[in-house]
Amino acid sequence: MTKDWETQKESFSVIDVRELTTNFLPMILYKAQQVNLNNGICVVQSFEPKPLYSALKDLGFEHHTEKISEHEYRVYFYRTEMKDMTFESGADMPFKPTAIVNYKAIDDLLASTVVDFWELIWGKEESAIDLKTKLLLSMSNAIGAGRYRQATRELIKAYSLGVTIKELDELFSLFAWNQGIGYFSSEIGPSTVFGVYKQIKKREQEGMERRKILDEIMQTFGDKNPDVNTLYKKQIKCCEKRDEQ
What we know:
Helices cover about 50% and strands about 10% of the residues. By secondary structure, the protein is of the alpha+beta class. The N and C termini lie far apart (about 60 Å).
């Protein structure tokens, strides 16, 4: 059913991200925060940008999507409520699914397929498993497979949603039990995911509030860190800067 605001959609500011090869989600979220009540924006992408739907919904937006062609989608977002961006709502959760951009570089259809699968796993409404638990499960699977980049990102996201240090203590004890002391000492201990865990524990013991801990962690273990970032181009830039120092 057509909503009344859709008659205004042609007047919305247009953000065309089809040619961007970097993470476009933070930029769109930033611009969305500037939109006034009863106003909107239009996002143009070469695949349906489904991860944006839940994020902007948490900011008070409704949306309408139009498929113009196989390589052009236009999503109109209209603000019906003024909501602030928070980690707790998920709108400002660290590490949006930026790796989708890598699939877009191969083929738009492949990117669309990956987005559909992402939505099934992470964007499912009324999921039987809450998001925090899903992230901890994903983190555990990643550690078991030696994928510390993924594990680091999942841990930070889970912490932004409220995982406690006691939960992390028990989880890392299980890693030592299941992986073995030798493997834990040589592989998990020096990893970025263990570095995040140690930093969280240290800062909480010092009495730092969660939001400040997250900001600090993202400075060290965010997308500027080549061992955490999923976009190849940024990794090269980080490495080049490190080599120049």
